[in-house]
Fold this sequence. Notes:
Layout: E1 7-12, H1 20-30, E2 36-41, H2 47-56, E3 61-64, H3 69-75, E4 78-79, H4 81-86, E5 91-94, E6 100-103, H5 106-117, E7 126-130, H6 134-145, E8 150-155, H7 158-168, E9 174-178, E10 188-193, E11 211-219, H8 224-236, E12 240-242, H9 245-260, H10 266-276
Parallel strand pairs: 1-2, 1-3, 4-6, 7-8, 7-10, 8-9, 10-11, 11-12
Antiparallel strand pairs: 3-5, 5-6
Amino acid sequence: MVEGAPRFTVFGHPIAHTLSPQIHQAFAHQFGLTLNYDTTDAAPADFAEAVRAFFAGGGAGANVTLPHKRAAFELAAERTEAAMRVGTANVLTPLADGRVRAHNTDGAGLVRDLTERHRVDLRGHDALLLGAGGAAHGVAWSLLDAGVQTLTIVNRTPEAADALADRLGDPARAHTRYWKDLDSIGSYNLIINATSAGVAGQALDLPFAICGSRALCYDLSYGPAATGFLAWAKTAGADYAFDGLGMLVETAADAFELWHGKRPDTAPVYRELRQRYA
Length: 278
Ligand code: ATR
């Protein structure tokens, strides 16, 4: 703990394997800033009080990860438009009187990783979104904003896919299909795995037929959780298969800019993490 330096944290449960502290310290290093960035493991029942205590104690900003993103949104006194439409938050900034403002930078982080790091022009892509939970909500609006031609949402539980499509309110582009029909719904040139199957150590049973020519497959998770889907993508013939490490670094950059008013260079930080965790 550096005395006098601003304090940041990431709330999660569990939180031991988070890369957020080292990403933020690497960004801070780029500007010669000194900051404290620790981790806070809070069980769901303790989350609201932990947030209150952190900001009451002078906390300058917090990241929020699973399973607290919805609770972070709900406890905030103010919410950005991006947080409002998604209904969850991954960044909190302090307001006066101990109140907090909720932000959601997940979708913007994914789109920037795809368009700037991987040089993908999303316009004209037919996207298949696997999953309709928190992670899928986090990216769906941003994919539409980025101009995907169509967004087909497929979820094991169809009602959740329908509910997301209804909220998106763009029936000309965003619609649902049944998971059981995956082998007959045609092929896609952008497939995003937003299910939590990999995190839970479960394999997804996906037909190769959904993988179109020159397809890009992307798993929102990274590390071992993404391995199964990326291996499937390569076997299915995808031209590109990426995990969500780049998205993580981009979402962190958005948080950093909110807190410090400076835009970090994500490229060297991504490169180093990629080398270290390859
Ligand atoms: P997260 O915040 O990680 O998105 P979530 O909100 O619990 O977590 O959502 C998990 C998503 O992964 C859901 O879409 C879930 O499908 P259901 O709505 O049918 O539960 C999906 N999912 C989890 N395990 C899965 C599996 N083995 N096969 C297919 N989908 C799975």
